[in-house]
Amino acid sequence: MIMKVFLNNRALFRISGLDSEVFLQSQFSNDISKIGANRIQLNAYCQHQGKIIALFWLMRSKDSFLLSFPADLAEKMKSRLQMFILMSDVIIEDITNQNIQIGLINEYHPGAFSINENLSVLINPASESNKELISSHDEWIKACIDYHIPEVFLSSSEKFVPQMLNLDIDEVGVSFSKGCYPGQEVVARLHYLGEAKRRLFAFKSEHEIKVGDSLYCSSSKAAKLRGSRYKGSGLVVNSVKLHSLFYCLATLDVDLLDSKITLNNEHGPTLEKINNE
């Protein structure tokens, strides 16, 4: 399947100035100095308790950086990033309306920024004609679910630590050798002194799945101990309906992976784990 998708649900910021790289290095979870040419680097922006406020697709563009992320976080991100500039030579611009972000599925373009071998993002001026683009995001979201690429929206901001979204695996979104950033002590402590009890997995169902829905396991110890106060053993991170099925990425307690998982409560629809299909 070859496809071009209009990603009009994403914001785009440009970070420039002499101190821009140092500034981003001090704020984000990954090692900014290792961003390759025409590559997208996942970066978590955490609060001091290690919870992810936003998850960025970070790109290096000439002497500046581009941040792509869900549009509903734009206002929150601009004001928060602006707080930490202080006396640094850093300029933050919202350039969403001046550009079009295009998701490429299995299509090579020399100017695109690659997420992996199959997915990349092309950024064009809004003035250019893009008549061949597909306006529905469904195929793109399904592709991101297939490759376990998570998202953080305004509704799910500050609900996950990086390990819950698998960002620590192969350091795809977290560097454990770079300098400090907000929440770094909490994230590093979990990495070196313990194991993540909750991880990211893909699921499907014949019934509707929405971001923020909880994953419920009636046989879990937490459900038995907390009774009606049990909030679930995971959360839906992103979801999509494609054809007749619903697909999602969701966090789940790893010790429940082989258990029956239902949505929101014990009477909810059953979720079926997707095994690399």
Structure description:
- By secondary structure, the chain is an alpha+beta fold.
- It folds into two domains: 3-136, Alpha-Beta Plaits; 154-273, Elongation Factor Tu (Ef-tu), domain 3 (Beta Barrel), CATH 2.40.30.
- It has helices spanning 20-27, 74-83, 138-146, 184-193, 221-226; strands at 3-6, 10-16, 41-46, 52-61, 64-70, 91-94, 99-105, 113-114, 119-125, 198-205, 215-216, 236-242, 245-253, 261-263, 270-273.
- The strands form three sheets. The protein has a six-stranded antiparallel beta sheet, covered by helices on one side. Strands 3-4-5-2-6 form a five-stranded antiparallel beta sheet, covered by helices on one side. Strands 1-7-9-8 form a four-stranded antiparallel beta sheet, with helices on one face.
- The radius of gyration is 19 Å and the shape is globular.
- The model has no long low-confidence stretch (mean pLDDT 93).
Short description:
With 277 residues, this protein is α+β, with helices and mostly antiparallel strands.
Determine the structural class based on helices, strands and strand pairing: alpha+beta
Q: How do the helices and strands follow one another from N- to C-terminus?
A: EEHEEEHEEEEHHEEHEEEE
Quick one: how many beta strands?
15
Spatial arrangement of strands, main beta sheet: 11-14-15-10-13-12
Q: According to CATH, what is the topology of the largest domain?
A: Alpha-Beta Plaits
Q: What amount of the residues lies in strands?
A: 25-35%
Number of helices: 5
Shape: globular
Q: What level of helicity do the residues show?
A: 10-25%
Regions with little confidence, pLDDT below 50 for 5+ residues = none
Q: What's the number of domains?
A: 2
Largest sheet: 6 strands, antiparallel
Q: Gyration radius, to the nearest Å?
A: 19 Å
What is the class of the largest domain in the CATH system?
Answer: Alpha Beta
